[in-house]
Backbone:
């Protein structure tokens, strides 16, 4: 048993995955800002953009869920 699991057990804590309430989708790295704190390193010179095919696949999957917020 790792230390984290051991601490949880010592305190009678069990972690359980909750039901997803929000789906966050990053659609690309093209951005009109240049922020040094950006965690995806996005900017105006980046050209990576999600394809329509991928968007459609996400939407097809999403309608089969009951996730209320995108």
Residues:
């Amino acid at each position: 048993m790792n230390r984290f699991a051991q601490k949880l057990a010592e305190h009678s804590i069990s972690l359980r995955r909750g039901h997803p309430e929000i789906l966050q989708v990053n659609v690309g790295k093209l951005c009109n800002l240049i922020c040094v704190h950006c965690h995806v390193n996005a900017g105006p010179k980046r050209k990576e953009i999600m394809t329509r095919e991928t968007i459609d696949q996400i939407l097809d999957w999403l309608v089969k869920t009951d996730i209320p917020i995108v």
Q: What stands out?
A: The two ends are 37 Å apart (CA to CA). The chain has a mean pLDDT of 94. The chain has two helices and no strands. Residues 52-62 form the longest helix (11 residues).
